[in-house]
Structures are given as structure tokens and as C-alpha cells.
Amino acid sequence: MGLSGLAACNLEIANPNAATETNVFTTSAGVRALAVGLQGRWGNAIANAVWVPGLVAGELGVTNASLAPQRAFQRFPDVGAITPLEDNNVEVLNFWSGHYQIVRTADELLASVENVQLAPGTASGMRALALAMKGYAFGTLSEAWQQIPVNITGLESPFVDRATALTTTLDLLAQARQALETTPASTEFTSQLLAPGIDLPSLIRAWQARYALAAGQHAAALAFANEVPSGASSEFRYATADQSPLWSVFTGLRYFAAQASLVEQAESGDTRVAAQFGTTPQPSFGGTSIVPVLRFATQTEPYPMFTQDEMLLIRAEALARLTRLDEARTPLNLVRTRAGLPERPSAELGTQAAVLDEILRQRRYSLFGTGLAWADLRRFGRQQEARVTWLPYPLNEQAGNPNTPPNP
Amino acid sequence: MLLRHATWRTWLLCFAMALGAPLVAEAQLTVSGRVTDETGRALAAASVLIDGTRVGTVTADDGTYRLVVGSPQPPLVLLVRALGYKPQRFPITTTSGQITQDARLVRDILNLSQLVVTATRVEAERSSLGASLATVTGSEIANAGVPQVDAALAGKVPGALVQLNSGTPGGGSSVRLRGLSTISRSAEPLYIVDGVIVDNGSSQSVDLGGNTSNRIADLDPNDIERIEIVKGAAAAALYGSRANNGVVQIFTKRGRPGALRVNVRTSVGSDDLETRLAVNRAPVNAAGAAVERFDYQDEIFQRGLTSNTSVGLSGGDDKTQFYLGGSLQTQDGIVRTTDYVRQNLRLNVDRNVTDWLRLSTSTAYVTSRANRQANGGLVNNRGVLTNFLFNSNDRNLFADPVTGVFPRGQLASNPLEVLANWKAPQEISRFTGGLQLTATPTEALSIDYRVGIDNYTDAQSSFVPRGSSAPDLQGGLAISANLRAQLLNQDVDVTYRWPTVGNWRFVSGVGSNYQQQKFNSTIARAENLALLVTTVQGSNQFASQGIDERRILGFYGQQQVAYGDLLTLTAAVRSDASSAFGRDERQQYFPKFGASLDLTALDGFRSATSSVLERLRLRGGIGFSGEQPPGSFDRLSNYVFEPAGALSGVVNSTRQGNDGLRPERARELELGFDAELVGGRIGVEYTFFDRQVTDLILPQTVTPSSGFVERLTNVGALRNRGSELLFRSFNVQRESFSWNTTVTFATNDPQVTQVASGGAFFIPESFNIIRVAADEAPGHFWGSTYRRNDAGQILNAAGQPIQAADGTITGIPAIGPARILGDPNPGNYWSVINEFTVRRNLSLRVQFDGVGDVDLFNFDRRLLETPAFGVGAAYADELEGRVPRGYFAARRSIFEEYVEDGSFVKLREIALTYTLPAALNRRLRTSNASITFSGRNLNTWTNYTGWDPETNTGGQRTVVRGFGFAAVPIPRSIAMSVNLNY
Hints:
The complex is a heterodimer of chains A (408) and B (982). Chain A has 408 residues and is mainly alpha-helical.
């Protein structure tokens, strides 16, 4: 009995609760699970990417003074009790690390796809997904931090400036597109591994358009937006077992609400207002008031990864910045009519400034709750309206990575 | 293997001989006599044996014995030993015939002669150990009048701090031997029962707010023979990587040859609330409207009945002995609707297979059911006591007399509805079994093989009905959580006593120890319950499972060298490999060294010290021990479930693996002395200890751009340093009256010496109040202070003092900077026990326990005076204008206010026992009958203003200590018990 006991004493016990690196990287089941997990990470990271820029740009407000880490981002602080936005803020860390977790999983997927036997279309689908998600992560990060690492080399990755980061984003998205164009995704990939609701080719083009615009490549942005078929959509569909984090912070916990000025300054008849905002304002900080957000109402409400309105407004903005004002007015007015508003006559949109002004106005309503509002302020030269120009680098990054630049 | 075959053959041969062949009588010696104490009272169960041999017997109830020595080989020495007495040796000169040898044993005030096994794994007298080892007898535990063994230890062991965390029936205690030695792991000692390593977990799968039991509660105190407590690494090194918190080894009763003995013990008693809190009686509310006020303590607390009946049967012959124990324990809680029922059964059998092979088994089965009640504690805001605090006492919380519907709670639930409708039962079913084979092929060689199994299921559930009074649980809630624990240990110990060389004696030991443990927990939870259903069936259902499994393989070697009675040296090393250690750190070594120098054995010691100093022993030890990593799989980089909508995927856990994870490691040095004075009537034991724990496992942040957030790393360090004193005195020793006093006193100064880079951190689920930082006490309180001027006066926001010269409060306090507010680790703890015996029939035992230099966070008081609820009497000051309006609204944010001196003295035990005189015993046909009236926790002297300074909302959590928030207070208990022996 004693001897048999000692013989049974194998000290390598497999963890039944989780998979190991070996399981994941060297089996096709593991690599498939990683591809799904990557999308799950996106579904989690989006919450910070929506509400942090939303507060910074003055689109949102916190509902409760006790939410100290969240309140630190808010553009309209309580005068006299301004909460400094510091590098030890846990939500600065969450925003940053949530996106670098996407990057890690994408890198792992790219590496492990090579290790296992997969149908060519399944492998190319996974590669495209990983490249697109990584591109998206860098794009989102580069709208909030002045410099970011884009080449992850362990614990001490080098940082690059914003232009390089956006170039990397566009490169990655182009590679994603290339992968799918060379070998189209298999049915196995699109029906079993890609979350239902995601149209990967359109999503890649939409993100190309978004980040080309951010990089100031207006002609490219226009071309990419034009390539997104009208009627195409991509949404992230949450489930009971994978609840929407946006539902959690907006509805479940009621941390955030919309600035009431969005309602007050809306044109009458704008259907986007009644669809998105409640009507009873409550006082907030800095003399502002807030109204409840009606979106994100259920645990399973899908979240749009891009919208037709965003594509139309990218086209309008790219054209306007290319001073093709006549052409810009068409998509712009299309957005207005989609919202139940009358077209604006050409006379009112006669100058580039007027067109851009109207575009920004429409973006506030069409793209509320996407986290893009902060990037808009920067692109439209109204950065001074934001709470901060850039977020501080998370304390843990500074502590562990000597390449971290000084805080802005 | 050859040895095994040979052993088996020998065994069979001997077995056959034992069955068939009558022993051939050669020269035979019979020794008989009577063993008594100094006053002539018979000592039962004293052991009488020929020293150095296995020839021996035990005395009967009247102290007599008869020992037959088959083939006596001179020189013969008769050794007589009884627990609590100094052994005596009598040389015997004849080798045949019959002789009489009586023995009159002298009390051993410090029990230095007691044989113990836990420190060295071979039987040794306490006086030979370099490191201190404490013992407690079973009767001290059984007479404590508390159903939990660990709670019964309170005040009985110097240096052991026993904290009663909750007064909920079924217990919940923490035992800290020389402070806490870990931050991430349980700080409870390793418990061993008859060689079986048993689990002492405190799983809380439903919301009980820390009012959870720990699994030592499953032992029946009536079954216990004695307990050995090894406090520090210097003594516990042989237990390797599980010994940083010390070792408690419990030995249960065993049969002895002779007639059947029957012990029947039954007690009934009652528990009630010791301290009621004063409630707000102001006739108006904050708006000035007249209100009626209630004291819901009347509805929440009750007087609870307790009972305990146990039967013990023991007996046997020279070959086989048995002990059979059974008991039924019932306890009603002092919180209504809470109760506890426990049934224990134990069978211990010993069999002398041959004269060199002994087989011993211990088996125990326990089943218990505790009805508990929800309490939010540090996790949520629902529950009974929690919502006593969270409902303004001008609200009528009683059920509508017509509809029976309870009003909704103000913030969360209505405590009266919780009592009426919510349920939180816990059911335990546990089997513990041990088997030991002891082979002594020669006098010098002893081989022990042990296997132990501890197997239990812990089923906890929680039920909140549909339409409950909690606004966030309108759909109801049902939870069913099951924990299945399977533990196994297998030990082999080999001891060899070398032939003596002059006065030198040598004992060598080697052994192995294998442990395997598996905890499988499942939890199922449903919300939006089906109507009238109390199980997990509802429209929102969630289930999850987790398995924690680890194996440990250890080997040790030990060498003892003794020179006469003067000097004993012990050196040992244990090596441990654990599946939870990182692959690069798999093998760990824990050495120890101890020395004991008994100056009494020196020639001329007596004459040099006159008669005052009877005995003086110096001892010292240094040893290393370890503590396992928290999770069995923490060393691995795990890929965890990550769904994308309806699809299932995996991603890397944000906690990075660490294949360099080592055990936490303690190095303990202890030095002390034992002194017997004035003819052995005064005894003093003193120990200084210094325990340095390094390699504490703490989460350390990882550069987040790597895709990880943290990893567990051996980065922390802490130390405990203090002293332990035991003072015992036989004040009066007469046949008609005796009076003994025992005082224990211990100090400890714990300090965290190192944490991960980044410095201080808050413990999760502690409201960001409990903090760990370098150079501070572990788990100190941190929070906001009063704004003060240089003179220390409390200031308002404008910088003016808020208190007028006459003491009246005229202003609203402003908040000052956050700082350390207090330390919940007691600086000292002590007990005083006095025992009086009158004419052998009447005895009185009185025990006071005290804890000093300790701070508590009285979160209860903060809520009691929070204006939104204002249940406490203090808030009436504001309603009735004795303090300015807004005073309490401001004060509730100043945490300094609620950190209180938590020192206390408790009248822990008082017991009056009347033992029936012999004549009455004869009439009752009992050999010994007694009746005891006892009280426990009858009174508390403290400045603490909450219900009880001893309880802790953190329950058995390691670092969350001294947190007073809706913890069920320890009841004041009285009981009457009858003890009959046949």
C-alpha cells in the first residue's frame, strides 16, 4: 500500500480547470478556442473604450460622486473637488491592459495557427481575425495615449509615436485583408469560429476607413469607406453566459449617463435622441446635468462594431477635407435623413468649415456610445475641450517597462 | 522487497504461534502493587513497565497492577508513569517469584516528563525537546463546555491565540500559534488526528458574512485523550512545507485491558446575548416629525438551548482493546432560526497481532446540520444583523397582520423577513479513518506505517424566496454549493536506538510522508425562481466548478544524541516536493536543530542552588519550515474560459504562471527555560521566539503591455517576535483542600518587513480598510482621520475647533489625511486559571482570558450613527439637538473615529463540579459520578462599544481581523452536566 502510494506520486498534476499553453498552442481544438477567446476579449475591452473617451470628451457623466476612479476622467468636474487623473487610476490600467490582452491573444493565435493542421480557409480566417483585432487594439490605444508599444517583446516593449502606431494599425488591417483576399475564409471559420453577427471583410474595411481618417489619409479613408457595402454590418452579440459589459456599467450598475446638453442641443425631430437618451435630467458636476442612456438596456444587447452612419460620415469628412464639398454633402445629408431630419440646403453648407461643423454635430448623435468622440475633438481641432490631451501611462507599465515615456 | 517478504513470513509464523502454541513457562517474575499520588489517592491508567522493554501493563481504577515478566533479564528496572506525574524507577533485584512494589508519584508541575511524539515523531519526554511543545488533556477540552475543540483551547496554551470569530452555532474560530506567518494562505495550524492529516477549511459558498464554521468543528471533544501543540518551525520542521503555522496533533481515546468501562455524559444549557446595543429612542426623525422607534434586537436575538449527550465504551483484553464513542450535540443559536445538530461516532481498535506487531485503527464518522442565516458582511448588504443596521428603527418592519407580507428593507432586506423566510443550511458528512502498524522486530528498532483518510462533503445552500424584502432579489435566489474534500496521507517512520556508549545514547530516525488532497467544489445558482420552489430552479441559472488538487512527497532524517539526563541534541532535515511548487523549485529542504540542557543533572546543582530551585532546564532550537502556495495551479500559465457570445473560447489568464514558485519559508529561533521551584510547587516555562518568514507569496504586478496583469511571486517577508510565559503554582496541597493557579502570558509584535514593489496594498473584500505595507503590522486599519490643529483639537472645514471649552460640540468635523489607524494583531494575550478542590468532592475551576494592545474597527457603530439609518443611541444626540445638525453625516466619513481599543478580559470558564462520594457511587453502581455546573463567556470587561470584541466579520480569513460588522456575538453560556462512569 505504501509502495503503491509512492509510485502513484506523480507531481505533475494537470489543471482540470484550465488549459495549458501546450494544449492551446499545439492542438487544433486549442487554436480554435483561442480564435473564439480573442473575440471574447474584444467584447470585454469595448466597455473601457466606450466610456473612458466618452467621459473625457464630455459626452458622458458619472452618476455618483463616490465613483472616484471613473469620475477622474470626466470633462465637467466638480469645481473645487476636481479629482486628478493619475497614473495609478485603476481604469487607466484596465483600458490599457484590456487592449494589450487582445494583442497578446492575437499574437498567440498568429503564432499557433502555424503549428497545427487546419483547412487553408480556416487558417486564413484566423490570421485575418488576429491581424484585424491587433490593428484595432493599436488604433484604439493610439487615440488615448501619445505613445504605445506595438511590438510586444515581453515585459519591456519599446514605445512608438502615434503616427507609427497608426501606420502599424493600417498595415495590420491591410495584412488582414490580404489574408482573406489570398485565401477566402472557409465556411468552417465563418460558421463555427467567427461570432455570429461579424462580417469580417466589411469590418476590416470599416476599421481601415476609421484609422486612415485618424492618420489623415483622407483619400484612403474615402476609398475604404466606399468599399464597405451599404447594408453591411458587424455587431458583437452578447449572451446570457457572456453579458455585455456596457449593460453592466450603463444599466446594471448605472455608473454612467449622457450629458443632458446632448438632448438640449438636439434638433427637434432627431430620432437618435429619443432612441438613445432618457428625458429626466439629474444634476451632475460642474453645473451640468445628465440623462439616462437608453442603449445597453439588456445583458445581451448586441454592440455595433461599426455602423453605416460612421461610414457615411467618414466619407463626408474625407471628402470635405479633400475640399470636395459638393460630394461631401450627399452622405452628410443622408445621415440627416436617416435620423428623421431634413436635408440641409447647400447654401448652409457652403464652406469647408460649415460642412465639417455639421459632420461633427452629426457624429455626436450617430456615434454616441462608441468612444469615438474624443478622437473627433482631436481631428476637429477642439482638443482643448477634452478633459485631458492624453491619458497617463499606467503606473504598472512605468514600474515594469523602462521604455515607458514620461507622462504627458 | 526482500525485507518485506521476510517480514511477512515472520509475521505469519508469529501469528500462528500466537494462536496455537502456549508459551513455555521459564523463570517467571510477578510484580504487583498500587500506584497513588502524594495524598494516597489511587492513580488509574498509570503505566507500569520494565524499562527498556515492551513488558508492561496499566493500573486499574483502584491503582493496582499486576505484571508478569516472562523471562526476566537483569538488570531490571520498574518504570511507573502517569500523566501529570513525575515517573519513578524502582530497581528489582530478584528474577523470579512474586514481589510487591507500590509507587507514590509526585505531581509534575510542568509535565516535563510527559511523553510526546509530535515534535520528533518518536516518543520522547518533553524535557528532551529543544523547542517548546504544549499539551492539553482531553478533560480540559471536554470540560470547557464548548462543542468545538479549537474554541476549547482558548487560554490553555501559552502563545496560542484562539479567536472566536462568530457566535453562530457550529462555531468559527481561528487559532494563531505565535502570530500569523502568511498573507495569502490560511494561517491555521496543521491539524493531525491520530496520525491522519485532517482538513480545517472554512468554505463560505453562500453569503454568511464571515459567520462560517471551520472543519475542526466536526471533532467531538469527548473523544479526545490529549492534544500536542507544536507552535513553531523549530519544532515543526519535520512537517515540512505545511508547518509554518505550527502543528496541532490530537490523540483520541483508546481502550485499555480490563473490564468494560462506560462513560455517559450529558449536559443541558442555554446560550444568550451578553451585550445589547443601546438603540435610538429619539421621539422625532430628522424632519422633526414624531415617530415610533423599535429595538429589533428583541426580534433577532433569543435564548438558545444547548444539549450534549455522549457515551463512551472502552475495554479489551491483552490482545485487543477498543474505544467506542458516540455523541449528539444540539445548539440553538442566539440569532433566531439558527441552530446546529452534530452526531459523532468513533471506533478506535488496537490489536497486538504478535508481541512485536501492533495494529491500531481510528475511524470516525460525523454528520452535522447547521441552519445559519444570511449576513452580508464584507460582500453584500443583505442579511439579519446587516439589515438590523441598514434599516432606520423608526420603520415598522413587522409583517402586515392581514397579508403576512413584510415591508421591503430600506437599503436591502428586512431583517425580520430574512429570519422568517430565508434559509442558509449547511450539511457536513465526514469520514476520517486511520490505520497504523507498529512493528518492533527488536527492542531497538521500531517501524511505523500509517495511512490516513479524511473525506467529507460540505453542502451549503441559500434560499431567498420570490418577492423577498430585498429590492435587488425580487425574483428570489437559490444557491446550492457542494464541496467534496478527499485527503490522504501515508507515512513511514523508522526509528533505531543505538546501543548506549557509556552515558551517551543515540536515536536515529528516517521516514517518508506522502499527502494527496483534492477539493472539488461545484456551485449552482438560480435567480427568478419558479414559484414555491426552494431548490435551484429558475429562469436564470448559473453553475460552475473548480478542482484544486495537490500532492506532496516528503522524506526526513533525524538524529538525536543524549548524554545522560544532562544534554539532548536533535538535528533533522526534511525534504519536500509538492506539485504546487514551480518546476524549477520542486525540491525544498527544511533543517532543524534543537538542544536541551538539564542543569539538574549536573553534580552539585542542588547544593549550589539550595532548595529553592528544584530543576532548571535550558532549551533552544532553530528550524525552518514552509507554507504551500495558495492555489495548486498558481505556478501554471493557465488558459481560462472566455466566451464570445454563444461561442466558447479560451484566453490566457491575466495572472501569469510562475514556474519558480517556492513555498513561503519560516526560520524560527526560540530560546527558553523551564524551572521548578520550591520543591516542585512552582513551575515556570519561558520562551522567546523570533520567526522570520520570507518568500511570502503575493501577487506582483506585471507590465500590462505583456497581456498579463499580475503573477504570484515570492516577494514578501514578515516577522513575529515575542515571548511566552507559563507560570503554575500549587498554592495549597492538602488532602482536604487544594488550590492551583496557572497563568499564561504571551506577547507578539508582528511586522511585515517586505512587500512587492509598489509597496502597500489593500486586502480584497475589506472595504479598502485593511492594508498591508512594509514595516507595519500585517492587516492594519487604514483610513481617513479628523482634521486637527497642532494641539490635537478636532477642526471644522474652516479650521476652527468644533468643541467648545465646556466640551459641547458646536461644529462639524472636517476630514484629514488618511493614515494608519490601528493594529488588529493583539500585542499580548493571557489567561489565569484557578482550580480549587475541597475534600476531593468539590472542585471549582475559574478561567479568565485577556487580550491586550489590540485595535478593532467598529463598523457597526459607524452604521448605527449614519443618519440614513440612525439605529444607534448616539444618533439621538443629533435629533435632540445635543450636537449640530450634520455632525454624524460628516463623522461617518472619518474612519479614525471607529477604530477602538479592543482589549478585553473575559470570564471564559467557570465550572463547579461535585464528585459523588464512594457510598453514593456504590448505590448508583457507578465507579465515578459527578455533576458540573458551568458557565462560559459569562462576562466581558472591555472599552469596546460593539456587541463583542472577540468576533470578526472576516471569519477565519487570515489578514482581515478585528473587523466588527454584523458579526454574531459569542453567546454567554450556562450548562449543567452529569458525568457517569461505570
